[in-house]
Amino acid sequence: MPRQQTRLRVEGLGPLRAFVDGEEIELGPPKQRAVFAVLALCAGTTVSRAELIDRVWGEAAPKTAAGSLHTYISGLRRALGPAQDLLVGDGAGYSLRISPEHFDVTLAEDRAERARAARDTGGAVTPYEEALRDWTSGTLFPGVPGPFVAQTRRRLDDLRVQLLTELAELVAPARLPTMTGRLLAEIPAHPFDERLYAVTMRALHRGGRTGEALGLYGNLRHRLAADLGISPSPIVETVYTDLLTEDRNVFARDLAAPTASDDGDRPRRYAAQWPEPFTRTDEELAAVMQSRAEFDIAAGNGTEAIRFALTGLEHARASGRRLLEAALLTTVGQVRLSLAQRAAAGEAFAEALRISQDAGDPFQEARARFGLVRCEEPGTDPIRPALGGRAEPGIGPGAEVPALADTGP
Known about the structure:
Blueprint: E1 8-11, E2 17-20, E3 23-25, H1 30-41, H2 49-57, H3 65-80, E4 87-90, E5 93-96, H4 104-120, H5 126-132, H6 147-168, H7 176-186, H8 194-206, H9 210-228, H10 234-256, H11 266-272, H12 282-298, H13 302-318, H14 322-338, H15 342-359, H16 362-374, H17 383-387
Antiparallel strand pairs: 1-2, 2-3, 4-5
Helix pairs in contact: 1-2, 1-3, 4-5, 5-6, 6-7, 6-8, 7-8, 8-9, 8-10, 9-10, 9-12, 12-13, 12-14, 13-14, 14-15, 14-16, 15-16
């Protein structure tokens, strides 16, 4: 009766594990596991002893590395037991004979290629789900040392995130909440992956969460500036601009729509036609208005920025949303400051400071204080008169939203 072929199965999309005839085997100490990982990742090819030493120990390999390698190979053969003939050694080096379908890393890479091919031919999302099926949420090859495994760990993690972002752009609207949650869960571990940020921003926007998308952009911009001293890349900036443009076009369309009570008072019509975003949280609305104001300032359109901010301010006051009022006052101050209207900016920041102090919001209080400091000029003190309570038309409590002609520099 012919001997049944022994099957070796290896898992690397998570902890490194090996199974012989369905039974898990013990791969030994970390360096021995690293030797096995290198051979599995290079399955079917011969890896020389010098290459194994370099891939396990790196440039700091000790003189005893060759002897240790021999010990680890012997240990792996004992661990493989009836499958030890799959670990082949000769004068050129060592190789591990494992079928591609018995190593989940190779399977995942093959499935990734098939998923991308299906996307190019108009395929559905199923191939992507299959490609991501066996990945775990933890670290790949945890506790396995060596530069080769470290490089592979990064490469495979990048592949997984790329597959996830590609899938996100294919899913139907009904699946967006789950998909967006998966994307957001990846950001803490990939804080500088701008492709991930761009796709997540688009997914949030598609799901009706534009405020969160703009806030995510702000977080990335701050992190890049603080940690790396750079600005977001064009791929993120393009998404950001697209979101603002689309949101602003919808907003402008709604503002232009006539109302039954339209008496020719344009500012009141703007206020009456403020679209649905007042169903959003104060934090989301503040992020939308802040991002929109910054976009208009960068485009040299301070009048547009003032109009949006003051219209929102009118609604915040009418609805008694004091924290949102403080946030929008700070935005108004920033726009005024960009137009060199320092005194008016100081008054807006001062009012924002009062409200945030009364409401106990340290974040908005800090924003307002920083704005007041920026209003200072050599030889002048615009902060004291601002704190004295003077109110600029269109800024102080109870003020009307000015017409566009009154909002220019």
